[in-house]
Amino acid sequence: MKIKVAVGYARRSSKSNPKSSIPNQILMIEEYCKKNNICLKEIYIDDCKSGRRIKGRDQYLLLKEHIKAEEEINMVVVAFADRLGREAFEFIRTVEEIRKSRLELICIYEGISSESVSPMQLVMLAIQAEFENNQRMQRVQNSKEQLLRQGIYSVGGTPPFGYQLTKERRLMPIEEEAEVVKWVFEKYSKGLFVSEILFELKSWSKIKNWTRSNIEKILLSKTYTGFIFKKIDGKKGLYEQLSFTPHPPIITNELFDDCVKLMVGKQSRSFKINFYFLSCGLLRCSACKASVKPYMNKYYHCPNCSWKIIRTFIEDRILEFLLEEEGGQADKHFENNKHIISNKNKLEVLFASGKLNSDEFDEAYLHLQQDDTNNKIKMRYTPLIKNKNLEHLKQVLMNDKVSFILNDSGSIEYYKERT
Ligand SMILES: [Zn+2]
C-alpha cells in the first residue's frame, strides 16, 4: 500500500477552550498521522484571533500553495472541523478548495473524512456546527446581561483602574488606586488640562507609567459612580447603564457630571487673568504674520489686516502647547535615563568580570554621567503655567525670544522669523 502524505492545519481563535489550543491541535494531528501510518509533511498554524475571515489566515494561504505545488500530497488533516471556518459558507468554501485539489480532508474530532461523507452531508455538518455556535453565543450573551444587571462584572477583561474583582466578580475599590481616580476627577473639575494632570501625577504616583490616554480613560468611565456603565460616546456624555445593583462608588455623580460638562465644552475652562499675556510680539497673525494686539477686551487682533481671534481660546491653546512640548521632553528624558541606567549596569558587569580595569571603568562611568547632565532638561514653562503665573511666563517667553502662530490646520506652532 502506498503511504499517504498529509499536511496539517491548526488555528487559534480568541476564546477557544484548552481542548482546542494550538499545541493540542498539533498533538492530535501528529498522533492521528502516526496511528494511521500517514507521512505528515508540515503543519500550517494560523495564530489569528477569529476564523471568521479568510483574511489574516496567511498560513492557510501558504497551505493552499503548498498543495498546489507538491503533487504527492494526498490529504489535509485538521483536529476540529470548525478550524476551517466558523461560519458555514467559509467552511464549505474551504472544503471545496480542498476537494478541487483532489485531496482528502480529515477532521479528526468529528471523525469526518471527505471520502466517506458526501458533499451534501458535509454541508449539513457545517450548518449544524454554525447553528450550535450561534446558539451558544446567544446563551452566553443573555446570561452576561443578566449578571451585569445584578452588578456582576461579566463584561470580560480587567475592571477599570481603581477597582478589583471580588470572588463573586463584583467591583471593589483598591484604596490606593481609588485615591488616584478621585484626585484625577477633582483636578479636572477644577479646570486643569489633562496634560497638567499627567505632569503632576507623574511626579507623585508610583502606581504605573502614566500616559495621557490612561487619564482620559479614567475621566470617561462612569462606572466610578457606583453602577456599571457602557460608554456610548463619552465625549458627548452618552452612557448606557448596565448594572442596577450598586457597587462602592469612587466618586460622586455630581463630580462626574461636572467633568463631563467640561469635556463636552459647555463650560469654559479658561484662565481667569486680567492681562493679555500674548501681546508684545508673542502671537503672530495667521494671515500676515504681524504681531497682534489686544482688542475690545476679548480678542487679539492684527493691526495690519482684519484677522482676529478670541483671547481665551488662543491662550488656552498656547498653554496646552507649551505643556505638551515640555511633557514630551520629560518623556524623552525618562527614556534616556533608562538607557543610562542600563549602560551603567553593563559597565558594572564588565568591571566585575575583569574585562575593564578600574581606570577604564572610571573613565567610562564619567562619560555616562556627562551624558546624563547633558540630557537634564529644565521645566521652564510648566511650573509657571501650573501656578497660573502668566505675568512671569510672559517675561520668560519674551526673554526666550519665541512667538507662536496658529497654523492652517488649527494647531499652534513656534513662529520662526525669516532672517
Ligand atoms: Zn494680519
- Helix tally equals 12
Q: How far is the N terminus from the C terminus?
A: 88 Å
Radius of gyration: 32 Å
Secondary-structure element order, N to C: EHEHEHEEHEEHHHEEHEEEEHHHHEE
Q: What low-confidence regions span 5 or more consecutive residues with pLDDT below 50? A: 266-273
- The percentage helix is 40-55%
DSSP summary, beta strand count: 15
Concise account of the structure shown:
With 419 residues, this protein is α/β, with parallel strands linked by helices.
Description:
This protein has 419 residues and is α/β, with parallel strands linked by helices. The chain has three domains: 4-134, Rossmann fold (3-Layer(aba) Sandwich); 163-264, Hect, E3 ligase catalytic domain fold, CATH 3.90.1750; 283-414. The chain has twelve helices and 15 strands. The strands form five sheets. A five-stranded mixed beta sheet has the order 2-1-3-4-5, sandwiched between helices. Strands 10-14-15 form a three-stranded mixed beta sheet, with helices on one face. The protein has a three-stranded antiparallel beta sheet with strand order 11-12-13. The model is unreliable at 266-273 (pLDDT under 50). The structure holds zinc ion.
